[in-house]
Amino acid sequence: MTRRFDCSDPSERAAGLREAVAAVRRGELVVLPTDTVYGVGADAFAPQAVDRLLRAKGRGRNMPSPVLVGSPEALDGLVEVTERARDLVKEFWPGGLTVVARHRDSVELDLGETNGTVAVRMPAHPVAIELLNATGPLAVSSANLTGHESPQDCDAAQGMLGDSVAVYLDGGPTAAAVPSSIVDITGEVPVLLRAGAIGAERLREVVPDLRER
Q: What is the mean pLDDT of residues 8-32?
């Protein structure tokens, strides 16, 4: 049964977070607010849950899901962290920066066809961070059907994903529909894969040799 919680009410927020954590542990999907758009999340380490997420969006494995984390420290457990990555994370997390890095050999992730990499971000939204610190890393993609506009409120997300999601955390309208900027740090030179919330010139203040694809 799908449940929705108004996170502007402290008691509902607490209950919603408890239900969302339980749903994630059962391999079910949750919708959560972020600082960009609403996302739909699943346990990043449960392949069946990630597959459920991709199916709910109508998305193939050729479009793997990014991973959200609740703290910069969580990055070390997932990926091989370079000095450039640390500099970027220190400057822009939490916020609108996604880094693409090679995941550690010891980490078993099946997010789709990633070729050994994972895209990781720490969102600047208190509800999202509280959930992520309780569940650990989540595979999170925008809470829309593939090909439709990314939702900025819970109504839009629920209208598209419906009963495929176990828990909706309604945090009110998101601040902006601008997606995160994506920087690939797998090579010797960082590469801007997608310009978004953080412009190239701002990023070059931290990594001057940034290339644009």
A: 98
- Predicted TM-score (pTM) of the model is 0.93
Q: Cα 57 to the chain's mean position, in Å? A: 15
The whole-chain average pLDDT of the chain stands at: 92
- What six digits make up the tokens of 201? 């010139």
Tell me which amino acid residue 64 is. P
Whether 153 and 168 have beta carbons less than 8 Å apart is answered as no
Give which of 112, 23, 100 is closest to 59, Cα–Cα.
112
Tokens 């542990």 belong to residue: 25
Q: How far is CA 32 from the centre of its chain?
A: 10
75's CB contacts (< 8 A; 6+ apart) are: 69, 81, 85, 89, 99, 101, 120
**Has residue 177 got a pLDDT over 80?**
no
- In contact, 122 and 71? CB cutoff 8 Å: yes
Q: Where are the alpha helices (DSSP H) in 82-121?
A: 83-92
**SS3 letters for 57-74?**
HCCCCCCCCCEECCCCCH
Helical H segments across 26-100, by residue range: 47-57, 74-78, 83-92
DSSP for residue 13: H
DSSP code at position 119: E
* pLDDT of the residue at 112: 66
Nearest-Å Rg of the Cα atoms of the chain is 16
pLDDT of residue 178: 82
